[in-house]
Specification:
51 residues; mainly alpha
């Protein structure tokens, strides 16, 4: 997954639903993404080490 994957969610949402809803969708996408990353690293802390 790339850093700029949010653009594939945010731009269509903005185009279809308008700028207000598009901003909410983009923000929610970031919050959910980092939340999942936090849970993943909490459950599998070994993923933070090299080797």
């Amino acid at each position: 997954m790339k850093i700029a994957d949010w653009i594939f969610v945010a731009l269509p949402a903005t185009a279809v639903l308008g700028p207000t809803v598009g901003s909410v969708v983009a923000g929610g996408h970031v919050v959910v993404g980092y939340g999942v990353l936090g849970v993943l690293l909490a459950v599998r802390p070994d993923l933070t080490t090299r080797g």
